Known about the structure:
The protein is an alpha+beta fold. Helices cover 38% and strands 25% of the residues.
Amino acid sequence: MGFESGALSYRAFYLSGRLPEDVVKRFAKHAIPPIETLGNGELNGWVSGRHLLDRKITDENAFLAGYLRLTLVKAEKKIPEALLRAECKMEELARMSAEGKAFLNRGERIEIKKEITERLLPTMPPTLTGIPMLLDSNSQVVYAGATTEGQMDALTIKFQEATGVKIIPMMPQTAALKRRNVSVEGIEPTSFSPELEDPLAGGNVGQDFLTWLWFYSEVRGGLMTIDKDQYGIMLEGPLTFYLEGDGAHLTLLRNGSPLVSSEAKTAMLGGKKLLSAKITMAHQQESWTTMLDADNFIFRGLKIPKGEEELDAVSRFQQRMVALDRFMNAFLSYYDRFLDERLDHKQWKPVQKDIHKWVADRVAKR
């Protein structure tokens, strides 16, 4: 799904440099080849953001409300798994009957599958998948529906091939470097549990941030003034806790009231930190809700405030992008606040003490 409607699942990227003035022409040169040329392999390339077959990229269709809007498309032929299994089974049964065998060995089954695949694949219709991408020329930030490692790799490679400019995923490490000019690589571990020493705690700054955000929302009320407007933030389940070690690494709490469950308190006391959680951000009557992947700053299913329905399509899109930009600005402002505390030893020690008390005193309901 693109950025025009519905919930948004995406990650953001920084541009490593200025894009060339002929960027649209460059993307047009790397448009996906005609689907009719698809053989048994795959085709890759760019199309406009209007639909997955709009391979003629121009200044007129590449922009929407001032945003560069394109999609990276992959076209391939696939045999449905159920069909492939059924065809292979039919051929295996026929061969066993013809040769008087009770079973076929592994090599014979592999040979049959290969023959069936070679026969069926050319008859399959193309399967199209796309990674929607938006570029905000003002902030020089790219938003893209690249929520898996494979999608991220494909996008970064194809973007650089077309433009000559690298895009850098906005992650806890890169955001700290960009916004505070500090490196958090190799940061000393800090324990959020009064029962675990610092050296044994994980050193992932993204998990530190999300767990701190939970503390900030419950102990400090979650409020923050951002650009003269007051925002609030809170966390909800499902919650995923993580700590690398000898025992169970992951704890997933989904049903009931996970924030006040005995399992959440046990996980925290054991040194686990939040790997993912649902966050809700609010400003006056507006609210944003999303699942956050703390390690990679991936946002899944972001619901943005409803806008004015009577607007035309371009204005509605622009309204959605303004809401997205406001959410990201506020989210990163909370991250700035966390970094200021976490990276200052004098500030962090009393904060850590408060966190330890918060964990130890948590309500634990069954």
